[in-house]
Specification:
The chain is mainly α and 283 residues long. The protein has helices at 54-113, 116-122, 124-177, 183-195, 200-204, 209-240, 251-262, 266-282; strands at 37-42, 45-50.
Length: 283
């Protein structure tokens, strides 16, 4: 391949070749604008994601939240079912114990009706056997009563503990779902419920947070309606106030002057009017 020569006579590279190889890269000034990003919060952390993916991420987060809520509701329902079944079983056991106590009392009553001196005189062995059975029956009755009392006390303790747990769970749910939840707001909701016709005892038995949320929504709507009515009333009162006259004269003075001028004769009124106009022209 022939080499080209420069003006000074030196050798140069062929015109078809170059020291810098060709490239397909786009110059910096021609680079495309990066995709737009948005910041989203997920699990307490902030991420930058392309804007088209924001909707999908929010939908996924909403689906996850609803799934968790359904799972929590299912768990609470299963716990209530288990508690109900356990309560039914305990109740049946209590009835069985009560039946035994009643049977023991009936047997003891029969023993106490016996003529013990006559039995001992006629048949000492029978007397000893019956007396032993009598004492055993009373002992069995006392043991059954004591066991029943312990079961009832345990059942009441469990019921109180479960009630406290439900109340605590309800408070946590209300604090999470109602931004301004506080003991003061709870007291206002109780008063509002009583004003609707509920008794304080009925209000005190409410532990389901869903019912409290409905009551809060009704209370908020009632408050907004009352504020709107008060605002409209204030606007009506403001609009009904009389306007002050130009020059500082009060409406009462203007009305009095008009009333006095109505009592003047035509000639007197014209005389005074001409004098007033002459006085004004002379200023």
């Amino acid at each position: 391949m022939e080499l080209a020569t420069d003006v000074a006579g030196g050798e140069v590279l062929p015109e078809s070749e170059s020291v810098i190889p060709p490239t397909d890269e786009v110059p910096a000034e021609q680079e495309t604008t990066p995709a737009e990003f948005e910041e989203v919060e997920h699990d307490g952390k902030t991420y930058k994601i392309p804007r088209p993916l924001k909707g999908a991420l929010l939908m996924q987060a909403d689906y996850t939240r609803k799934t968790q809520e359904v799972a929590e509701q299912r768990r609470q329902h299963e716990e209530r079912v288990k508690a109900f079944e356990a309560g039914q079983k305990t109740h049946a056991e209590h009835l069985s114990d009560l039946a035994r106590v009643v049977a023991y009392n009936d047997a003891i009553a029969q023993f106490e009706k016996a003529d013990w001196p006559q039995i001992r005189a006629s048949n000492p062995q029978l007397y000893n056997d019956l007396w032993f059975q009598y004492q055993q029956t009373k002992e069995s009755r006392d043991k059954t009563v004591l066991a029943l009392q312990q079961k009832v006390a345990e059942r009441n303790s469990n019921a109180q503990r479960e009630s406290a747990n439900r109340i605590e769970e309800a408070r946590a749910a209300l604090a999470r779902d109602i931004t301004d939840w506080s003991p003061e707001l709870a007291g206002k909701l109780n008063q509002f419920a009583v004003s609707l016709g509920f008794t304080p005892e009925e209000v005190g038995q409410v532990t389901d947070p869903r019912i409290v949320k409905l009551l809060h929504a009704a209370y908020a709507g009632n408050q907004a309606k009352s504020m709107q009515a008060a605002s409209q009333k204030a606007a009506s009162v403001e609009a009904a106030k009389p306007l002050s006259t130009v020059g500082g004269a009060s409406p009462a003075r203007v009305k009095a002057a008009d009333s006095a001028s109505d009592k003047l004769s035509t000639d007197e009124w014209l005389r005074r009017r001409n004098a007033e106009l002459k006085h004004k022209r002379g200023r």
